[in-house]
Fold this sequence. Notes:
Blueprint: H1 2-7, H2 10-26, H3 35-50, H4 57-90
Amino acid sequence: MEVLEQYAIPIVMGICFGLGFVLKRAVTKLPNNWIPAILVVIGVIVNSWIEAWAFTPEILIGGIASGLLSVGLFETAKTLIDRVKNTFSTKE
Length: 92
């Protein structure tokens, strides 16, 4: 977990989260299994852009980690929302 904390960049995660949400909702023909790969590439590009277009192993790892963590954040939020909806819809 410390490795993820070391390389996760909140700004990159936020951008990837937003773009992932748009991809999921707006591009319905895009298979879901492609979204993490796309967000990894976007994460690396955005992280490199933030660092003045530098490219080092740390920037690569930071972009990959942030892109994948944004996917995990989306899935966690979706699961929690579904559980809350199910909890309130079954109790009448």
